[in-house]
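Hi V.,

You were right to ask for the full record rather than a summary. Here it is.
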Amino acid sequence: HVQRWAREMLARGWRVSLVTARPAPIGGVEQIVLPPVARSRDWLLRVGAARRALQRLQPDVVHAHYVTSYGYLAARAARHPLVMTAWGSDLLLTPRQSPWMRWLTAWTLRRADVVTGDSQDLLAVARALAPGVPAQLVHWGVDLARFAPAPWAAKPPADVVSLRSWEPNYHIDTILRAFAQVRAARPDARLHVLGGGSQTSILRKLVADLSLQNSVQLHGRLDDAGMAAVLARCKLSISVPQSDATSVSVLESMASGLAVIGSDLPANREWLDAALLVPAGDAHRLAACWLDLLNDDARAAAAGQRNAERMVLEGDRRVQMDAVDALYRRLMREVRT
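Predicted structure:
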C-alpha cells in the first residue's frame, strides 16, 4: 500500500521520502531506515530517530500511515501539517487492548491535522477518539487499467481466488475447510490462494490433510500483473477476515468483474451484496454460499458485472489520489497563512 501511495504522489510531482523500519525498494523515493522493530513497545524507542529524520528532510507535509506506530512517531515529532491514515486494526482493534492503548491512540490522533480512513466505521472510531479532528474518507482505490473484467464465458467453470494474507485474522484455514466441502459437491472446483505470512507451513499442511493438493494452488505473493492474471481466470473471490476496513483485494476483485463473498463486517457492507456476507470463521456457511454461486452461474455473472460497474464509478485509484494531492496542497496553504 505504501509503495502504491508513494508512486501515485511521485506521478503528481511530489518529492517523496520515506521514514520506515521495514524498507523495500521504491524507485525515486529516498528512504531513511529506522532501527528494526521486533515488539510493539519498540516504537516508543524510535522517537528520537524519527525526529532526526524529519529534521533532516524538512518535509512540507508529514503523512503517517498506521496510527499506532508511525502515527505515534509523527505525533511525537510535532511537525505540521500532519496527515494520519488509519489502516484498520490500528483503530478497530488496538484501542480495545487496554485503557492505556485507547488513551495513547486518542492522544496520537489529536495531534493530526487530518485523519483519513478507507471505511465509515474506521472514521467513526477516529471521530470518537479525537473529536474535532477532521476525518476524510480516502480508500486505496484500484488501477482500473490493470484490474478489469475478463470475458466471463472464457473462464473455467469453478475457479475461485483468495487474495488475503496468510495470517490468523484472515481465516485462510476457514476458506480451505469450506473448499473441502465445496469440492465434495463440485469436483471441478479449483482454489487459487495468493499471499503469504506466518501461517504458511500450517496452511500447506492443512491442504495436505484435506487431500486438496490437486485442486488448491498456493501461489504465494504475486505482483499486480500476476494477481490480475489469476483474477482473469476466476469467477469468485473470497475475503473473510475477522476484522477489516475496506480491503484493496476486495476492490481489485470487484474491478476484475468477480462476484465476491465477504465476512459480515461494516466495511464490507459498504461494498458487497448483503446476501454474499457470511460470519467470519464459519466454514459451513461459507461453503453453502460458495456452492450457491457456483451452481447459479448467471447470478454470479450478474454480481460480478455490478461490482465492475460500481468500481468504474467509485473505485478509480487516480480519483482517490487526486483527492489526497488536493488535501496536501490545501494544508500547505493553510500553514502558510
